[in-house]
Every structure is written in structure tokens, then in C-alpha cells.
Specification:
With about 170 residues, the protein is α+β, with helices and mostly antiparallel strands. About 25% of the residues lie in helices and about 25% in strands.
């Protein structure tokens, strides 16, 4: 079993848009950095954005979602996103892996107001065996239609505590 939780941090030269492009093997334009990021990731077998009920339509656009998350952060050392990486059992079928990840994400993140961007990868390890795992990028703020960015002014810090992560 493997689970790693990390924060996407501007102070480390990171961008939520760049991170999403990499996780999904897509081309995305980063409005803050005024540049495109494009990656080829042939091991991406599933990609989805899961959002709380009643979320605006724009959250389903990866470009719009992560550029808005970046806009919601104004400091040069901001933290626009969090990532959770989870290994998945080889014994499960592709459909079972998707169901497992979606169920977990809905219960643990979406139910708490977080928009969650899921990518399931299945690269081969050095022995030629599948190494399935999921990357889940999470917004650091809850949705709020009353703000220009679409996100709440204050960050949801409940996931900063070790018991929540465990």
C-alpha cells in the first residue's frame, strides 16, 4: 500500500495547471504563467473531475478549474492545490479500480466541498507487471459562487491536520 499527500506550492515553482496537465497527459494553458504545458502520458487510463452537487459547469473544464484555483491565490508563496497519490490493487479490474477511487473521492473529498480531479495511471513496473495508482488533485478552497474566482475567500484547512490525512 502506498499513499502520499503533498501540496502544490508556488514557492517551489509549481503550478496547479502544470500539475494537472502532467497528471492527465494533456495540454493546458496556464494563464498566470502565460504558457502552455503539454505532456504525453500513455499510462493514463481514466480521467474525471468529481464535484459537489450544484457545482457550476465550469468546474468540469480542467483548464478553467485549475486556472481559477490559481487566480484565487494572490501570494507568491500560495498553495493552489493538494495532491493525493494512492496505489491500487492489481487484482481489481479496470472498472473496479475506477469504482473504488470514485467512491473514496466522493466520500472523503467531494462530500467535504472539494472539487477533485482524478487520474488513474497503469504503468508497468520493472518486472512487466501493472502498477496501478491514482492521482487526485484537490482544490484548497471550497466553491463559492459569490466570489470572482468561484472559490471561498478562506482555505479549508481541515486536511492540514495529521489525523485527517491518516
Amino acid at each position: 500500500y502506498h499513499c502520499r499527500v503533498k501540496i502544490i506550492q508556488r514557492s517551489k515553482g509549481q503550478s496547479a495547471v502544470k500539475s494537472a496537465a502532467y497528471r492527465h497527459g494533456e495540454r493546458l494553458w496556464d494563464e498566470r504563467l502565460h504558457r502552455a504545458f503539454s505532456y504525453r502520458k500513455p499510462d493514463v487510463v481514466h480521467s474525471a473531475i468529481l464535484a459537489p452537487e450544484g457545482a457550476p459547469d465550469w468546474v468540469q473544464s480542467r483548464h478553467e478549474l485549475w486556472n481559477r484555483a490559481e487566480r484565487a491565490e494572490t501570494r507568491k508563496n500560495s498553495q493552489p492545490a493538494r495532491e493525493v497519490e494512492i496505489s491500487l490493487p492489481r487484482e481489481l479490474s479496470p472498472d473496479q479500480r475506477i469504482a473504488l477511487v470514485h467512491g473514496f473521492v466522493r466520500e472523503q473529498f467531494v462530500a467535504r466541498g472539494r472539487v477533485s480531479d482524478v487520474a488513474i495511471h497503469v504503468p508497468m513496473d520493472s518486472m512487466g507487471l501493472p502498477q496501478p495508482h491514482a492521482h487526485v488533485m484537490l482544490t484548497m478552497r471550497r466553491l463559492d459562487a459569490s466570489t470572482p474566482s468561484g472559490f471561498a475567500k478562506g482555505k479549508a484547512r481541515d486536511w492540514n491536520e495529521a489525523p485527517e490525512v491518516e
